[in-house]
Amino acid sequence: MELKEPGPEASPPSTPQRRRSVCNNCDRPIPVCLCHVIPVPPIQTNTQIIIIQHPHESNHKLSTTPLLTKSLLNATSLTSQRLTLNLLRRLPPANAAATFYLFPPTPTSPAITLTELKKSIQNKNTDNTPIVLIAFDATWKHAKEMVSASEGYLSTFATRVCLNGFDESMEGGSIYDSELVLRKEPFSGCVSTLEAVARWLGAVETNGPVIEERLITVLREMVRLQAQFLKPMKPRPKLLNKKKNITKVIEKQSEEEN
User: Fold this and answer.
1) 4 exposed, middle or buried (CB, 10 Å; 0-12, 13-18, 19+)?
2) Is the pTM of this model over 0.85?
3) Which of 119, 140, 233, 236 is the most buried (most CB within 10 A)?
């Protein structure tokens, strides 16, 4: 009988990973389902909202665009890195009174504030003709690139609007920052897409404050649920040493004064 050298042991078959159960309605994992706060039926608005979503953002689990399109009847999202005429032709309405896009100002591209816009709309749009709002959903780096790539076309028909309180010298100001650091905003006045659209509707729509509050409720609940799955952050050594040094300086100054 021929003897054979033993070969490598066969590895046991891998256990297939169980996929998380996802809600059929809000398309979110069951533990963070938001159906209990998403408005039903979707909220009717005079503003037609177009969200241009960066391809990378469309796969982000904390993107707020799906919450907007499910919460608002007149909200539509398209995945693209810039806005073009062909893209806009696919969307209503053709008889809009005016079109605006939300983005902070730059030295070469100034923007009117939401307060200034509200006065302008109230004076001009007396017959409640639909207006169009364009928002860009991406990281701030990508959003700047998207607006820059789109502005040659945008500037021919749309007015740039920024939220009140925009200030590059200050940080924070968004729900992400104030209640839970899920995603860091670069400076004051920069907020999530849902929060920005909610503020717009709060200022422009007839029953705006009610609409804004309902949308913010959805965002707050998303933040609250997501917080359950965050791991505690370990303090960074450099930051700890800095705090210790500051404490020592304060204590020394106190001793000298006494």
Assistant:
1) exposed
2) no
3) 140
